[in-house]
Amino acid sequence: MTRTFVNTIVVTLFFLLVLSGGDARAAAKGSASKQSCAACHSEFSSLLPKAHPPVTGKDVTACTKCHAPDAKVTAKPKPYSARLHLSHTQPGAEVDCLACHTWKPGKSLGVKGTKANLGVLSKEGMEETKKIFASWSSSRYLDAHHGKKNVTCSGCHEGKVPEQGDSVENARCLACHGDEEKLAKKTEPKDFPDRNPHKSHLGTVNCTVCHSAHKASKTYCLDCHTKFNMKIPFGEGPQAKPAAGAKAK
Amino acid sequence: MEKDGKNKTSGTTGATKEGVVMNRRDLLKTSLGIGAVAAAGAFGLHLTGSKVEAAPLRQLPKKWDEEIDVVIVGSGFAGLAAAAEASAAGAKTVILEKMPTYGGNSIINGGVYASWDDEYHLRQKLNLGNDSVDQHKADTLKGGDFYGFPELVEILAKGATPALNWMIKDGGLKIRQTVTRAGGHSAYRTHTCIEGVGRGYTEAIKKIAEGKGAKVRLGTEVTWIWRKDVNSPVAGVEIKTPKGKKNIKIKKALILASGGFSRDIKMRAAFNPGIVPEFNCTNHPGATGEMLRFAQSIGADSLQLAFIQLYPFAEPETGILDTPAVYPFNGVGYGLVYVSKKGKRFVNELERRDVCSFAQIKLGDKPTYSIFNEEMVTKMGGTKEEVEKGIKKGRFIKAETIAELAGKLKIPADALEDTIKKHNQYIKDGKDPECNKPMTKSMIPLDKGPFYGIAQWPAVHHTMGGLRIDKDARVIDIWGEPIPRLYAAGEVTGGVHGSNRLGSNAIPDCVVFGRIAGANAAKEK
Asked: Which residues of B are catalytic?
């Protein structure tokens, strides 16, 4: 369960750092050549660690021929990571998904030059996924917070590409955010210890009842206890609260 | 429409918006008409009130997304108990819960349970007098002005004790070692769980149900009941999930355990215009009446929908029934006193909830107060910790003398002192000439502090009316016949509590009839 991508050391870290610069924006403008990395990256050596052997090629297969995508993180050398999305999905600088992915609408989604099967994605699903990626890379919500900490889709949605309506199990959240007791201790109000959203009269509730990744989070307690003064990270309006010190284990 | 024998709402004012729910006569007409049409083709019955009224004929699904033996709507006491029995009998059982959390009103319920006996024989051990199934039955019938059906009330009274012991033995329920006498009851028979809130029971029953393999699906709302025509069994349900609409075929039975409609402001006013929108409500936001309407739309009979209960002692500002708000209910058998802002008693504290509520409304001066002392706390099923927490939140007000308490509550001190002095004398005399309360030996005079006060005011709490069921928890149609494969239990049903439910009869009603519904549903072929 603790297999989140936070712990995955990934070869593409250096891509991320460099690509967040102007190169990607330039790429968005050139439409005909979107399908190739070469439109932005004339060479790869400056993106790679010093010790990395030289790489040639014009698309993602330059990487994947050595680094296989592998959600189980057992591939050697180190697996290819979905973190590469972060710099390539910034609003206004989105790179065409098909620059790296193979996709048969309603059938399969893969990665060029590999046998990876990331799941089934319909046309609508593709549009939704693009929106989610844009949110993940730049929103004010919980998804972007995870993005900044290098947690990708599979950090929460195990395995395949999430479908519309998919949720996240508590165990998946708690894998990084500690056990329930510890979590409850952190949010215990000093004045009224029993007004603790993580130890309420409703017993164990799903994290997702309050915490949404791709939209504003909302304190469920306030639906009934309208006068409580409660704030939630990544909420909206008066519910908003900066996630100060909200560090994963 | 059903007989509305008592206008319980005189004294309240306020206009009500036009109701949206069809009356019985309209329903009857439509049902007959459409029944004939539907029987001729492969159409599903489609009669519903409100928004979907104008919907075109809906065809039964050509294919089902899933098949389940027993589908239960609602994850409160009744739904969980039904699930426990159905799955224990080997049926594949799924509870559909529209809210994102389980338990509905049950998990926030006040945690009191009427039963003439229990595993530990607490009443007998504490020397609190006699009780019996018959006495519980008689109180319940009388408390509901004899609108309740004796054969249903008998099932409740008889089943309450075995159901309580079942939750203790199989579910790990823990109860406080005391029994109280609550309004409308003639015996000390009200039990309280350790948690002091309905969660104690829901967790116990959920443990039994899940242990037998039942599953709870949260965030799953039923949007339709499928029935081909008025001679056919219930075929399935349409559900709305985060992944879209789906249809479930029901192999054995559908059990409605979806609760009451206290949060359905239009619906409650449509049946009882005196329950004006301005009233606060103790319920969770999901307590709306759509399942009742769907059941009506496939021919189910309903009754006594005008009988809507106010909880007399809710938190005055919000209407929430929190832990302190249970004290005024639990304390009366031990001498707790209700007073107005003028420091005067206004009702026999052992009266039923409707009487206590409307006595306050008649005063027209919000709020009123309960006065009790330290000595009563554990006897009435409270704890020192609860009282401490309540004080911190400003719910309980504590003082060393009655005069000091009056000052803190902004009640005239001389009036309150006089009221308490008189009441102490009534306890001694065993007679209450002022309000005619049946005084008991267990009542404690308020002559020793510390004393406590708590503010209270009525809020909409429970809908006594609902679907017509028989002794087997089968739902009865408008022609008096059971609808095949359809059962109901708990607050969604009517005819158990009559015009006024006695406090602490809700959990036994739900658990007892839930168990019956579940066991019978599993027996369907």
From this structure: 353
